[in-house]
Specification:
The chain is an alpha/beta fold. The protein contains 11 helices and 10 strands. It has a 5-stranded parallel beta sheet. A 5-stranded parallel beta sheet has the order 6-10-9-7-8, sandwiched between helices. Strand 7, helix 8 and strand 8 form a beta-alpha-beta unit. Helix 5 packs across helix 10.
Length: 285
């Protein structure tokens, strides 16, 4: 089994698994930063047997100084996962509307919570449709699961740790937002534009396209060009910790399961006006 087999599943392979005894639990986590809620997409059609889990209210905590998508309360997360039928030690597959961001944050959250057997449907719902596979509007009632949430199974950064990593000579903090946001030229979501001083910009579109990831070697080369070496600590952040979770997923594919997520990301960084703000295209200490 390759590393990608432990992280990704193609639509055709998933269809085979769903037809076998004791199939994986399917979680539909479609989500938009703005626009109609993902639950409406789910109601219009989803993978047969999939249960909708809301990223904003189940997989993340309420927005505030900790960020727009902070860590969830473990008890709330556990209740949501059990209601969705997640069982201890049993496989889970997550999927979204195709860009892979919400699915990656769901993948990250489950693994952070100690549930390792979780994969991402490569290409999300559009890949399932493109394969000519069936969809359903029936809302299943799964048997309650028994998963135990044990936080801390994946590394996280707080603001201080992110700042130290960005300033370290032997580490790299990736800012995976679009370049104009990193440079401080525009900011439509958070109240301050710019980046964590010392962070390196690597926009998400440079390592994932339409929710599909290149081969591990290509990922390693792209991350290496941004300064990510095999022996250098690495972390990632974005606006609120969703796109950055996708970066951590890509780093896992590239062989860096130690990659840390700054969960609060920029929305947490700018919550404290005393924190410095970098601007421009070049990282500054």
């Amino acid at each position: 089994m390759s590393a990608s087999d432990d992280l990704l599943v193609e639509a055709g392979r998933l269809a085979v698994e769903l037809g076998q005894p004791d199939p994986p639990t399917l979680l539909d986590v479609r989500w938009r930063l703005v626009g109609a809620p993902g639950r409406e997409d789910y109601a219009a059609g989803h993978l047969p047997g999939a249960v909708f889990v809301d990223l904003d209210t189940a997989l993340c905590g309420p927005p505030g100084p900790a960020g727009r998508h902070p860590l969830p309360d473990p008890a709330v997360l556990q209740a949501a996962l059990r209601a969705a039928g997640v069982r201890a030690g049993r496989p889970v597959v997550v999927y979204d509307g195709g860009d892979g961001m919400a699915a990656a944050r769901a993948w990250w959250t489950l693994r952070w919570a100690g549930h390792r057997p979780v994969r991402l449907l490569h290409g999300g719902f559009p890949a399932w449709l493109a394969a000519g596979l069936p969809v359903s509007t029936e809302v299943p009632t799964p048997e309650p699961g028994d998963v135990e949430v044990r936080p801390g199974a994946l590394p996280v950064l707080d603001a201080g740790e992110a700042a130290r990593l960005a300033a370290a000579d032997d580490g790299v903090l990736l800012d995976v937002r679009a370049a104009p946001r990193y440079r401080g030229e525009t900011e439509l979501i958070d109240p301050v534009a710019g980046h964590v001083p010392g962070a390196v910009n690597l926009p998400a579109g440079e390592y994932v396209a339409e929710g599909r990831f290149p081969a591990a070697e290509a990922l390693r080369e792209r991350f290496a060009a941004a300064g990510v070496g095999d022996d250098r600590p690495v972390g990632a952040y974005c606006g609120s910790g969703v796109t950055a979770a996708q970066a951590v997923f890509a780093l896992h594919l590239a062989g860096r399961p130690d990659a840390a997520l700054y969960v609060g990301s920029w929305s947490n960084w700018v919550a404290d006006p005393a924190r410095p703000v970098g601007t421009g295209a070049t990282p500054t200490a």
